[in-house]
Amino acid sequence: MRVVLEVLADLRMARRLQPWAQLLEHALQPELLRRPRVAIEAAPLTSLDTETTSLDPMQARLVGISLSVTEHEACYIPLAHRYPGAPEQLGLERVLEKLRPWLQSPRHPKVGQNLKYDAHVLANHGIALEGIEHDTLLQSYVLESHRGHDMEALAERHLGRRTLTYEQVCGKGARQIGFDEVSIERATEYSAEDAEVTLALHQVLWPRVREHDGLRFVYQSIEIPLSRVLFAMERTGVRVDPVLLTAQSRELGERIAALEAQAHQLAGQPFNLGSPKQIGEILFGKLGLPVQKKTASGAPSTDEDVLERLAADFPLPRTLLEHRALSKLKSTYCDKLPAMIRQDTGRVHTTYGQTIAVTGRLASSDPNLQNIPIRTAEGRRIREAFVAPAGSHIVSADYSQIELRIMAHLSDDAGLLEAFAKGQDVHRATAAEVFGVRVDEVSADQRRTAKVINFGLMYGMSAFGLATNLGIGRDEARGYIERYFARYPGVARYMDTTRALAKRQGYVETVFGRRLWLPEINSPNGPRRQGAERAAINAPMQGTAADLIKLAMVATAEWLRRESLGTRLIMQVHDELVFEVPDSELERVRARVPDLMCHVASLKVPLAVDIGAGRNWDQAH
DNA sequence: TAAGTCACG
DNA sequence: ACGTACGTGACTTAT
Question: Of A82, A174, A194, A490, most Cβ neighbours within 10 A?
Answer without folding.
Answer: A194
